[in-house]
Fold this protein.
Amino acid sequence: MDSFIGRIKSAADIAGTSASVAQEKAIQEYLPKIISILKEKAGPAVLEILADTTKLTELARSTYQALPMPVRLIVKEQSFIDWVVSHQDSVVEKMKSQLVLESSDETPTRALPPGEVDDTAK
């Protein structure tokens, strides 16, 4: 009887490990989208919110609802919140990188009077 219970526990451990791996894989696959949703939900105070664990927990909770369906099917809400909080440093770094990329993409353009052509773009 003990070996039967041992096999059940072993199978449960394997299933739990497989679920954790699937959740991590889903989060990593959709991480750019997750970062984008976090930024959108937090607004201009995003870096301030990411630095505060309590605010980050609430942000992760509201972000979960906006995640793509494949992620929500694999990753439960509390697991997602726990992941965001436990990976706070890497989330902040990825957010900063995304903000830097976005700010470098915003190159100022010079307004021309009607009928004029920009010769400097050649």
Summary: Helices lie at 2-29, 31-42, 46-50, 53-64, 69-74, 77-86, 88-105.
